[in-house]
Amino acid sequence: MSVQIKGLCGWWMLALLSVSSLVAQDRDLRLVDAVKAGEQETLRALLNEGIDVNIAQVDGATALHWAALGDHAAMADLLIRTGALVNAADHYDVTPLSLACTNASPVMVEMLLEAEANPNATQETGETVLMTCARGGVVAAVAAVVVAVVAGAGGRGGGVGVGGVGGVGGRGGGGRRGARGRGRWWGPHGIRGRGGGVGDENYGEGSSREHAAMEPRHLGAAAVIVRSFARIHQANLKKQGVLPLTFVNPADYDLILETDRISILGLATLAPDQNLEMVVHHADGQVDRFEVAQTLNDEQIGWFRAGSALNLLRDDSAS
């Protein structure tokens, strides 16, 4: 009897493999193959054809899984913008975010979290996203996941995607462009949907009053990125918990369009005099990366994380 059962199981296994092979042949896996090969132009051409961005292999892995595994940030961004499901799980409940954590890639991890990947996803083995990141040993990747987990629970965070609120510029040509889009905010109060602004030279000139910085804050601005600030206005933005950033290369300002979606990476490990990375997602699928500078000291970083200087004072008094 035991021999017959083994033989029967073997027959079913062969049948299953045969069916799986036929199913695989019927699937259009050109998108997956392009990502595996790192061929971004082929990927772009296939997406323009209207190929199914979420087509999966027999094991359930999609093109986004492979982009995350290969740490192909530009291709992952294209896939996400075209409708790739960031929480798609393969047959072992492995998500793209889990694979990004396997590589311990902070840029890929933050990109997926910004696109609302589930930071609490658990694999079939019981390993969580945070456990996978911790095993990778890269502090910035672990911090990004911790921020997202805490933010999802309504606590404090520390990363930011900027977009949605157009910048209000001061004199001297400031603020002629607004950064508008689908920005996501993992911010001081775990709130999504925060925005920001982009401005030109001497942003905030003639706007030294506190209300000139309070208004962007209460409109939902998380950051303002400019070529240069008027000194007093920059100080007031810091007090209001709005992150003032300047382009390291002022010419980068000219590459930003009103339809762009902007992300600021590296806030989970924000430190004094540490430059941050600005990722600009253009409507046509192109991605530009710039370096931006900030001048916050330790006390001012506390203001930013609390949402304002007064918020931090209140919290300290309460404790």
List keywords for this structure.
single chain; 319 residues; alpha+beta; Serine Threonine Protein Phosphatase 5, Tetratricopeptide repeat; Aconitase, domain 4; 2 domains; 8-stranded mixed β-sheet; 13 helices; 8 strands; 13% strand
Descriptive notes:
- The protein has an eight-stranded mixed beta sheet.
- Helix 6 runs parallel beside helix 8.
- It has 13 helices and eight strands.
- The chain folds into two domains: 93 residues, Serine Threonine Protein Phosphatase 5, Tetratricopeptide repeat, CATH 1.25.40; 160 residues, Aconitase, domain 4 (Alpha-Beta Barrel).
Q: In percent, how much strand structure appears in the residues?
A: 5-15%
Number of strands: 8
Helical content stands at 40-55%
The low-confidence parts are 1-25, 153-193
Q: Could you give the distance between the termini?
A: 71 Å
CATH fold field value of the largest domain: Aconitase, domain 4
CATH 4th-level superfamily of the largest domain? Aconitase, domain 4
Quaternary state of this entry equals single chain
Mean pLDDT: 75
Strand count, sense and barrel status of the largest sheet are: 8 strands, mixed
- As a whole number of angstroms, the C-alpha radius of gyration is 23 Å
